[in-house]
Design brief:
elongated; 3-stranded antiparallel sheet; 1 helix
């Protein structure tokens, strides 16, 4: 399959952020959530073959990220401890569609290894990741 156009008829982005003042050593705490949805790009079934161009769509992508944070009041230094979870639902988003006619033919023994959707790590977006960190403001 070959991506030939960048037309995405549906793109939805959402953002929710809630922070509150706590008082004491825990100065401020909050959570934010981002949501992104994009419909799939138009693709042709195979390059170099007669037929309708852009007659199929790649799969849609959905991404949900969550960040929890707390700011501590420690005098002149105010560290913010956070946990960032990307791809909360651990959705396997297809971000690249291989073209079986470009390098390996489907009859080739190497097609499943190099261009196969199950084996091509570049075909998918990031898996769920969790980042724990400290941001220091002074």
């Amino acid at each position: 399959m070959t991506v030939l156009d960048w037309h995405r008829p549906h793109v939805f982005n959402g953002y929710v952020d809630y922070h509150m003042d706590m008082g004491g050593m825990l100065d401020r705490a909050g959570v934010n959530l981002t949501f992104n949805y994009s419909s799939g790009l138009p693709v042709s079934a195979r390059s170099g073959v007669a037929g309708a161009a852009l007659d199929e769509r790649a799969p849609a992508t959905t991404d949900v990220n969550l960040k929890l944070d707390a700011t501590l009041a420690l005098g002149p230094v105010n560290p913010t401890v956070y946990l960032l979870i990307e791809n909360v639902m651990n959705k396997q988003n297809v971000v690249y569609v291989a073209d079986p006619g470009s390098y390996f033919d489907e009859a080739s023994a190497y097609h499943d290894i190099a261009a196969g959707s199950a084996n091509n790590l570049l075909a998918y977006g990031k898996p769920r990741t969790m980042n724990l960190g400290v941001q220091i403001d002074f």
